[in-house]
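Entry type: protein chain
Record version: 2
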Amino acid sequence: MTEEDAEEWFLRYRHDLEEEVGRGWKRRLAEKVGVAETNVQTWVKSGRVPPAVRRAITLADELEGLKREHEQLRSIVGGRWIESESYSGETRYSVHEMDGKTGLGRLVAGNIARIEDARELANLPAIKARIERAVDMLGLDNMYDHPNDRKYVQSLQEIDWAAKTPWER
C-alpha cells in the first residue's frame, strides 16, 4: 500500500468510525488497537497511521465480523435462525426458518426487541416436539376411560401452541 493509499484509507476509516460512533471515535479506535488516545490524535494531525497499526485495525475489524457471523450461526436452532439488525443504536431481531418446499428461508417473526424473546420463538418447534414426546411417553391416549377425558386429551394435542394469541393479532 502506497503512502497516498494509506492516507486515503485512514481518512475513509476515520469517517466511517465517526459516522458509527460519533464524538468518541478516537477513544474507540485507541481501545481497539490498545494505544493511548494521544497516539490517535498524533495520527490525525499527521494524517498517517503506522503500517502495523493499520494491519491491527484491519484484523480487529475482521475479527468483529467473524464474531457476528459466529453468533448468527450459533443462533440457528432446529432449522430456525435469528438475525439482528441495528438502527440508530437500537438492535432488533428476527426469526427465520427454512421452507421445506422451496428450500428458501422465510421470515417467521420480525421486529423483536429482546434476544431472549427471539431465542424462545426460535425454540418453539423443539419445545413442542418435546411436549409431544412427553405426552406419548405418558400414554395419555389410553389413560382415561371417560369420553370427556379422551376429548380433553385430544383437544390438547390439537392445539397450535405456536399460534398467535388474540392480543398478539
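Comment: The CA atoms of residues 11 and 47 lie 8 Å apart.
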